Amino acid sequence: MARAPIYLASASPRRSELLRQIGVAHEIRPTAVDESVRTGEAPAEYVLRLAEEKATVLWDRLPPAERAPVLAADTTVALEGEIFGKPAGRDDAVSMLSRLSGRTHQVHTAVAVRHAHGAAARVNSSNVSLRELSAAEIDWYWHTGEPVDKAGAYAVQGLAAIFIRHIAGSYSGVMGLPLYETWELLRTVPGLAVGSEAT
After folding, report:
1. Of the listed 34, 60, 74, 149, which one is catalytic?
2. Domain 6-197: which topology?
3. Confidence (pTM)
4. Which end of the chain is more exposed for a tag (fewer CB within 10 A), N or C?
């Protein structure tokens, strides 16, 4: 366990669950930033910028006496370089899933850490292949409610698992928090002991 807690700049229950999985004590502090894509911004650059902004915004908001390391993350789905964010509604979700059907796309997740001694960030990119989806399956999936707040309109850890033919990369990264990169960042934070380094 972490000797001292960190702050998780996210309301995502999946990210909190993944941190608990690797034994990192944390306090949830949801943090919002403008998620508009900048002109010409590549998917990996986009998530990296957002993760770093979330970490910085929360860090700057904390009173000095309450400061502890901040962890933030952001995930996006991309097909041929086009960013697929959270669907605006049913039509948007159907369009996304129809385009992802039978194809391989990328999931980029950035994780950023901000602390008293500086900041660092990493990006994990994975390839995800979906099988062919029928219009009826997409309609059924939309009505489960699962796609509503998910990048690319699907959740790998949920019902959409039945659509996924292959993943090349990090399953936890596709979920929203790449644990390898997260661990590598946290273990470099001065004064924060994790895992076998904890006493």
Report:
1. 74
2. Maf protein (3.90.950)
3. 0.92
4. C
